[in-house]
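Posting this for the archive.
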Amino acid sequence: MQTVEQKIAELKILPVVRLERAEDALPLVRALAGGGIPAAEITFRTACACDAIRAVAAGEPSVLVGAGTVLNARQAGDAVAAGAKFIVSPGLDEELVRFCRKKGVPVFPGCVTATEVQRAVNLGLTTLKFFPAEQAGGLKTIRALSAPFGQVRWMPTGGVNPRNLKEYLSFEKVIACGGSFLTKPRDIAAGNWEEIASLCRETVRLIQSVSAAG
């Protein structure tokens, strides 16, 4: 049975989703899955996040659903209770990490400096979010950090798009990228589910071209 990390590494892309309405959650993840990406990081940037996660966990259990923009252990507890299978945080909060590890829930905190990475490694983590990726130096910074922290694998998020996705995925320490470009707010608001599915299919083909080249 695959672990959460293995599933994300297999997909190589993790859609980062902001929802204004919980009722959009199911049609959205069905569009993602229909396009070949059965996963979603539903962010805690809106009040309906827990309800959206709960809807996906109950209605589409084959979709890997997690919570993003989780800032503290309380939010993590709410997300896990709603059915989140993993937690993503924009920064490194030790209480949050300890809570998730105690619960056995994978957690991927955002780290961009050697100090943050070292703290995360000493908390027992080996897979980290690199956020905000483009603003923090992109792949050059990830490569530099990978020299002293060779055990760490990365999920860059922030500014990732179809133009730079291949570059990030070409580095063996990058297991996947987080991307909001797959779920544009205007498409969600308009119910353009086929547009989202089509973009997913294009992204899957792009990812496959990286694998073939490797």
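The domain at 4-108+161-207 is CATH 3.20.20.70 (TIM Barrel). The mean pLDDT is 97.
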